[in-house]
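Lecture notes, unit on protein representations.

Consider one protein chain, 302 amino acids long.
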Amino acid sequence: MYRILGRFARSARVLLGRERVGQGVTVWPDDVFLVSYPKSGNTWLRFLVGNLTNPQDPATFSNIEEKVPSIYVNHDRQLRRLPRPRILKSHESFVSRYQKVIYIVRDPRDVCVSYYHYLVKYRVLPQGYPLGQFVPRFIADEFEHYGAWGDHVLSWLAMRGKQSNFLLLRYEDLLDDPEFQLARVAHFLKIHATYGNLVRAVYLSSADRMRYLEKRQSRKWISTKRSRQDMPFVRSATAGEWKSVLSAASALQIEKAWGPVMRALGYKVCALRGAGLNLLPLLGRAAYGQGVRSIPCRPGFP
C-alpha cells in the first residue's frame, strides 16, 4: 500500500515538474548532453563549456547548475525553463532521445581510484575501507547502477560512434592539450571561439581555480553540501594516479574486465597480449583522428 502511494506521489511530482527526474528528463531536439561514466571529468567539462559559452560570467560551483545543469539535482520544471539550446550533464548509458552528445571517457583504473574517494566523501564507504575490496565491487557496478564502465562506454560508442552528432573526448587528451580539445568542443557546438577565448576558458576552469572555488562554495553547491567537508571534490585532476595507488592485482582485475575496450581507446593494457578483439571498426568516427596517446604501464607491472 505504502509502495503504491509512494509511486503515485512520485508520478505527481514528475507531472508537476517538481521531481529531479534523471532518466525521465524532458528532452528537446536541440539539447546537447555532456555524458560520461561517473568520475571521468564531467564536472571539469561543464566548467570548460560554461566558461567558453559565457566568458563574461565565469562558471562557479554557485552557478554551474544554471549554466550547465545536471539532470540529477534539478527539477524538470526548472530545466524546461532554461533558454535553448540547453547543455545538460548526464551519466546515463545510451539514451536514444539524446540527439547531440559530447562523451568524455577516462582510463577506468583512474576512474576506480577517483570513484573510491568520491564514495568515501559521500559516506557510502566508511573511512579506511580497503581499496582492494572496492575494485571488484566497482567492476560489478554495485553502487550507482549506471552500468559497468565497459558496458557504459560501448553503449555510446557502438550506437553513436559513427555519427556526426557525437563527439568523443579523452580525459587524458583534455589534460594534455586543453585548448585544442576545447576547440573541438567549440566546433561541435558551432561556437566561434578565438584562441584567446579558449585560453581564458581553460584558465577559468583550471583545477587550482576549481579547488579555490570549492573551498568557498562547497556548502552551497547542491552536489557537495551534504558530503564530508574535510574531503575535496576536486582531487588530483591528473592521469595515471592508479599506478601509485592500485596494487598490481587490482589493476589486473580491471584490465581483464575491459582490456579490449581500453586498448581501442588508446590505453596501455599490460594484461592483454596479442591482437585481442579489434573494436576500432565498431567505434567508427569516435576512434578516428582523435590523436590518442597510449599511457604507459606502471614500471615493473608484469
